[in-house]
Design goal:
By secondary structure, this protein is of the alpha/beta class. It has 2 domains: about 260 residues, no CATH class; about 260 residues, Carbon-nitrogen hydrolase (Nitrilase/N-carbamoyl-D-aminoacid amidohydrolase), CATH 3.60.110. The protein contains 17 helices and 12 strands. Strands 5-4-3-2-1-12 form a 6-stranded mixed β-sheet, covered by helices on one side. The chain has a 6-stranded mixed β-sheet with strand order 6-7-8-9-10-11, covered by helices on one side. The model has no long low-confidence stretch (mean pLDDT about 85).
């Protein structure tokens, strides 16, 4: 009787109808999508999730299709971006600002999935009847769905400054042979084949639903995308194998000491903790210098202020150990039209030679919205209430190559999440670059999946440009990745604790002339081709739909 009464109450609340609806399936599909990424990282789920989202919208169109797609995307992003709640900014002890940002960003990113489902269902209803169509029509629809997915990712990477975080292809970061296609198409090519296969699998299920005895059709639907995946894996193995020199010689290497101080963000904001911060950096650095590295690296914003005492201590350490050094610190410059106190501030990195002399600096070009500047404050000043940022940085002018002549090595620095942008990073790779160097501070997000997600997103920049990527972070993931996207070493690899203070000594090839990849030379040709194809396909259908 109690169970019957409970069920009756659920019916009154209309919860039972939701549990039997497409919307629950959409939520499940969104969570499955998220589980393909770090930290859970079950890569195979990515090959199922897009098709499952479309399955939830099967037979719908218009507003309902969009709602189902948006709900799947919103659910997935809410789970994936949970670490935004770790940002140590509180109002009356409540993480109101971080929580608002978490919900708003997830809701915004869910729009891309909603629009994708809407477009796929619209094309299906106007051009293809998948249930009663021919194989060619179903295969064409699957290809168009993959093209539209890439189109959405291209927009996501650019619109409102862009947020190319955890693009679908990133889920395959462990599948090294497969992801070599990124050297031609960028990460978008990996996502393309995943969606193509997933929707083809959905087509097979639709055929089986209508013809339960037609098991042969299952292989027919997925044969073409499966053949392409096998071909890409084979080519990827070949690309990696070709890198081995004919004489088996080992390239020259430089020893890099990457310092990870693991300073909590609350301490970074506390001016009273400056001596403690600097002491921590020096203590870890002195331990690393015992191993005689060629280059010492500190992460983003490591310097707690460029006082004379700090500068003297650093240069003395450099001269005593005869080591090159790159460090992250704030920089300032007087404005052209302003007083003595009217300054532009920059998030920057600096290069010092073994004599303790300043050599070069780079100022971060792509700033983090609500992290390094607050947009629209002239018209919406209340936005400052939701973020700890009160001032703001000024963007730099472009990439700067750090030449370390005595080491015979060159590198270009990327700061913070600059390394998640494919089209941005390729500008930083020149023909004689030995490696890319990313300085970042993910201490904003505590001990969470953010560090792994950031690193695995950045991993694709190494594949796309055919250049190793070295990452020095405040609290993880401090590591280096070779030109094929293989995670070679990371701090905490033996202990399993990637967040604690320490240092990593890595040996990175230098003087090895890397061949510029197709992607590095030509950029997002594949992504823009998908955008153009999507527009050419959908626009005539939309115009035809609106005609009386």
């Amino acid at each position: 009787m109690k169970i019957a009464a409970l069920c009756a109450r659920l019916d009154k609340l209309k919860l039972s109808s939701f549990l039997r609806s497409r919307y629950l399936l959409a939520v499940i599909a969104g969570i499955i999508y998220t589980a393909a990424f770090p930290k859970i990282g079950i890569a195979g789920l990515a090959w199922v999730a897009p098709g499952l989202i479309l399955f939830a919208a099967r037979g719908t169109s218009g507003r309902q299709a969009f709602k189902i797609g948006w709900l799947a995307g919103f659910s997935g992003w809410m789970v994936m971006l949970y670490w935004l709640l770790f940002i140590p900014y509180r109002w009356m002890g409540i993480p109101f600002g971080p929580a608002l940002g978490w919900v708003v960003l997830s809701a915004f990113l869910g729009l891309y999935t909603g629009i994708w489902v809407l477009l796929c269902q619209r094309i299906q209803s106007l051009r293809f009847n998948v249930q009663g169509s021919t194989w060619l029509q179903r295969a064409s629809w699957a290809l168009l769905c993959a093209i539209l997915w890439v189109t959405m990712e291209m927009i996501q990477a650019r619109f409102l400054s862009g947020f190319p975080w955890m693009l679908l292809g990133t889920s395959q970061h462990k599948m090294t042979p497969l992801i070599q296609i990124a050297s031609v198409t960028g990460v978008y090519g990996v996502g393309f084949v995943i969606v193509w296969f997933s929707v083809s699998l959905l087509n097979a299920i639709n055929v089986l639903i209508n013809k339960p005895t037609s098991y042969r059709s299952l292989m027919a639907e997925v044969f073409l995308p499966l053949l392409v995946v096998v071909s890409l894996v084979t080519w990827g193995f070949s690309r990696i194998t070709r890198s081995i020199t004919a004489d088996g010689s080992v390239p020259r290497t430089i020893r890099i000491a990457l310092v990870q101080p693991s300073i909590p963000q609350e301490v970074i904001w506390d001016e009273g903790a400056i001596p403690e911060r600097f002491e921590q950096l020096m203590r870890v650095s002195e331990a690393a210098l015992i191993e005689k590295p060629d280059l010492l690296v500190w992460p983003e914003a490591a310097m707690p202020g460029f006082s004379v005492e700090h500068f003297t201590a650093i240069t003395n350490m450099i001269v005593q150990n005869k080591v090159w050094m790159i460090l992250g610190a704030d920089d300032a410059e007087r404005k052209l039209e302003g007083g003595l106190d009217d300054l532009d501030f920059f998030n920057a990195s600096f290069l010092f030679n073994p004599e303790g002399d300043y050599v070069a600096s780079y100022r971060k070009l792509r700033l983090v919205m609500f992290g390094e500047y607050v947009p629209f404050t002239r018209w919406l000043p209340f936005l400052r209430w939701f973020t700890p940022v009160q001032g703001g940085f000024t963007p730099g002018k472009g990439p700067v190559q750090f030449q370390m002549s005595e080491l015979g090595a060159q590198t270009t620095v990327l700061i913070c999440f600059e390394d998640v942008f494919p089209h941005h990073t390729r500008r930083y790779v020149e023909g004689d670059s030995d490696f890319l160097l990313n300085l970042t501070n993910d201490g904003w997000f505590g001990r969470s999946a953010a560090q792994w997600q950031h690193a695995m997103t950045a991993l694709f920049r190494a594949v796309e440009n055919g250049t190793p990527l070295v990452r020095c972070t405040n609290n993880g993931l401090t590591c280096w990745i070779d030109e094929f996207g293989r995670l070679r070493e990371f701090l905490g690899q033996k202990t399993g604790d990637v967040y604690s203070a320490g240092y990593l000594i890595c040996k990175v090839p230098a003087g090895k002339k890397y061949e510029r990849t197709f992607y590095n030379r030509h950029g997002d040709w594949f992504g823009w081709a998908c955008v153009a194809t999507g527009l050419l396909t959908f626009t005539p259908l939309l115009v035809r739909r609106r005609k009386p």
